Amino acid sequence: DSGVTQTPKHLITATGQRVTLRCSPRSGDLSVYWYQQSLDQGLQFLIHYYNGEERAKGNILERFSAQQFPDLHSELNLSSLELGDSALYFCASSDDRGDTQYFGPGTRLTVL
Amino acid sequence: GESVGLHLPTLSVQEGDNSIINCAYSNSASDYFIWYKQESGKGPQFIIDIRSNMDKRQGQRVTVLLNKTVKHLSLQIAATQPGDSAVYFCAFTSGTYKYIFGTGTRLKVLA
């Protein structure tokens, strides 16, 4: 168990809908990262938050947004969902050094 | 742009043999490298890391080798066990809090 939690574990929705994925980092970690992993694909970095502020952006679509709250949990919002958004979404956290990232169990999103 | 590649998408080894998984990276400024293991249905799990000021680091049954000259990273697993079957990702950061991950190598351990 990495100490990073993600909810929900599974999510099934329809095209055009909006969903929110939630992540709680390890105790004491200020950094939260979001990744997308499509079938048989590597991890694509989406966005990084540090102590409530956006630190870096990767290949994140404009339909996607994220935020990190004062209690350090983070939410990833996916809107106007398309079939191609079906994937595993992982959250990871790291400490101040920002080296090793510890991953949560992921949320599997299925868009029908 | 930055990229990380893997030479072998699938590696099959006999139980008890040693496994070597390779990774090439393109950013010569990278200073930190990590290997992750991902089992089916789970999130990536940290295995071992190495900084650019080292060329070898050993853990329990695993060794990471870094060759900065040719920008090559490898993961060696000694006495491979069935529980080692998984997808292995290499990743690097260049100090920008941004990680680049390879597409992964699937390791299959044959009984």
Q: What does this 3D model show about the protein?
A:
The complex is a heterodimer of chains A (112) and B (111). Chain A contains no helices and eleven strands. Chain A is an all-beta fold and 112 residues long. By secondary structure, chain B is mainly β. In chain B, strands 2, 4, 5, 9, 10 and 11 form a six-stranded mixed sheet that branches. In chain B, 33% of the residues are buried. Mean pLDDT of chain B is 87; it is low at 1-8. Classes of the chains: A mainly beta (112), B mainly beta (111). Chains A and B meet through strand 4, strand 5 and strand 10 of A and strand 4, strand 5, strand 9 and strand 10 of B.
Gyration radius of chain B (Cα, Å) is: 13 Å
In percent, how much strand structure appears in the residues of chain A? over 45%
Indicate the overall shape of chain A.
globular
Biggest sheet statistics of chain A: 7 strands, mixed
Which pair of chains has the greatest number of interface residues, and how are they split between the two chains?
A-B, 26 and 21 residues
Which regions of chain A have little confidence, pLDDT < 50, spanning 5+ residues?
A: none
Task: Note the total helix count of chain B.
Answer: 0
What's the number of extended β-strand segments of chain B?
11
SSE string of chain B, helix = H, strand = E? EEEEEEEEEEE
DSSP strand count of chain A: 11
- State the end-to-end distance of chain A: 31 Å
> How large is the share of residues in beta strands of chain B?
over 45%
Broad structural category of chain A: mainly beta
Helix content of chain B: under 10%
Distance between the termini of chain B: 41 Å
Give the CA-based shape of chain B.
globular
